[in-house]
Amino acid sequence: MDFPSLEALILDPGCKFLFQLARSDNTAVLCSSLRAISIVFDSMRKHLKLQQELFLAFTIDRLAPPFSNRSRGQPNVTVATSGKKDASYPGTLRPGTPTTPKPNSEKTDREIEPEKGTTGPSRVLVAPARGETRNLILETLTQISGHPSFMVDLYVNYDCDINCENIFERLIDFLTKVLAINSYSNP
């Protein structure tokens, strides 16, 4: 981009406020914010690595079917405290990101290894999108992923970086689960 001051405005406050608007329940606001987000990602893709990671993680969370192991509507969640990727949970995330607990594990990561460092703020859990909201988010994901090297870029920029979430892996996992659910419901 040839305008550094405009780039700085879009990178931090612009994306912050667009992402807040993308959480809206108002369909018109949601549609406009998602359209703006896809245009920003389309035009500034190489400058928005962190923002794209956050948005894709949010998108996958919104599109994922609800967890089946919820008790009384509350998700069973622990908070990851280690920045390293863990082989026992292939989708290990950044510090402070909510993860599902490991089987036969009574203590959270925070209780087991509190001296490993401080945790950042955890990601806000979002309810799965339904109806028109789900369609709008899927359409935005389709537009963002329309770039010819999108999947390769996801793998190289996120999954190969130990400081980033496994976005490629999460997206493939999400897509295969959705396809499996759709194939069982539509014989």
Description of the structure:
By secondary structure, the protein is mainly α. The chain folds into two domains: 1-65 and 128-187, no CATH class; 68-125, no CATH class. The chain is built from seven helices and two strands. The chain has helices at residues 4-21, 27-44, 49-63, 109-112, 131-144, 150-159, 167-185, and strands spanning 78-79, 98-99. A two-stranded antiparallel ribbon has the order 1-2.
Which consecutive residue ranges, at least 5 long each, have pLDDT under 50?
A: 68-92, 100-122
Structural class: mainly alpha
What does the overall shape look like? globular
Number of separate strands:
2
What is the strand content? under 5%
Main sheet summary: 2 strands, antiparallel
Total domain count: 2
- Helical residue percent band: 40-55%
Report how far apart the termini are: 49 Å
Number of helices: 7
Order of helices and strands: HHHEEHHHH
User: Roughly how many Å is the radius of gyration?
Assistant: 17 Å
